[in-house]
Write a structure and sequence with these properties.
The chain has helices spanning 14-32, 35-45, 49-56, 58-71, 73-84, 94-97, 105-126, 128-149, 161-171, 197-202, 204-223, 236-253; strands spanning 4-6, 182-184. With 259 residues, the protein is mainly α.
Length: 259
């Protein structure tokens, strides 16, 4: 029998390093920019659910804006700024562009850590192009799932958490399969196939991982500000949208490479 050697889990692929570099570069530029320029950038490329909500139900968005303005004139002006500042055609970039913006270095480092941990096995198995496409779809799915629940929300959403969650969902389909992190010296040995949804339900490790992910996501999402994890509300619903996108779309991107 051929000798089997363990593949290092944190042997980071080039596609993952590319995303980490882009996230860091974008945030570095923002740090060096003026506060006014940074706000304009967020208003243009951050994801504001109410901008899409305005296309669906204008009266609901305007009523929500009026309610905010009646409560606080300053908050009303901020909401109006994020709703109206950016050119309409740039709206269609925001379901993806928001993922390249982060609130602070802590936010970036947190997402970068999980991207390296779970994006790496996905990138090795799916290949760089499919890996990047899945992340993009995860970000988009997270944005619109959040919008479906918060149609009139005027605060911009930023961060790669939904895309990272998509990689977690995809990884859950195979990282707990026997032999997922082993490879043979002999060519032609394939990685184990993706687990079906019934197989995932029958796998205790997978269920424990998914259960822990949902519990921690809810804990951080609902109590992140109280516990000091974030200075702004966390769009935990977008994480769920991204996770399910990765979980369900993984078979379309799988190349069954040695993981």
């Amino acid at each position: 029998m051929g000798e089997r050697t363990r593949e290092p889990i944190f042997n980071i692929p080039a596609a993952v390093l590319l995303l980490l570099a882009l996230f860091t570069l974008v945030h570095g530029v923002r740090v060096l920019s003026s506060t006014e320029a940074d706000l304009r950038l967020i208003a243009t490329y951050g994801f504001v659910p109410a901008r899409f909500g305005f296309l669906i139900d204008q009266s609901a968005v305007l009523d929500h804006l009026t309610k905010i303005a009646n409560s606080s004139e300053i908050e009303g002006q901020i909401g109006e700024f994020f709703l109206t500042y950016a050119p309409p055609y740039k709206l269609w970039f925001t379901p993806l562009s928001y993922a390249f913006l982060h609130g602070d270095w802590t936010h970036l480092i947190f997402n970068g850590f999980w991207l390296a941990a779970f994006g790496s096995p996905v990138a090795r198995r799916f290949g760089p192009r499919r890996f990047l496409m899945l992340g993009a779809l995860g970000a988009i799915a997270g944005a619109f799932f959040y919008t479906a629940l918060h149609l009139t929300e005027l605060a911009p959403m930023i961060g790669a958490s939904a895309a990272v969650s998509a990689y977690m969902g995809a990884a859950a389909r195979f990282v707990f399969q026997p032999g997922a992190f082993f490879r043979s010296r002999f060519a032609g040995v394939e990685a184990p196939p993706l687990a079906s949804l019934p197989e995932m339900l029958a796998n205790r490790q997978t269920l424990a991982f998914v259960g822990f992910w949902f519990a921690s996501n809810l804990l951080v999402g609902l109590g992140g500000q109280s516990f000091g994890f974030s200075s702004a509300p966390i769009a935990w619903e977008a994480h769920i949208g991204g996770f399910f996108a990765g979980l369900l779309l993984a078979p379309l991107f799988d190349q069954r490479r040695k993981a």
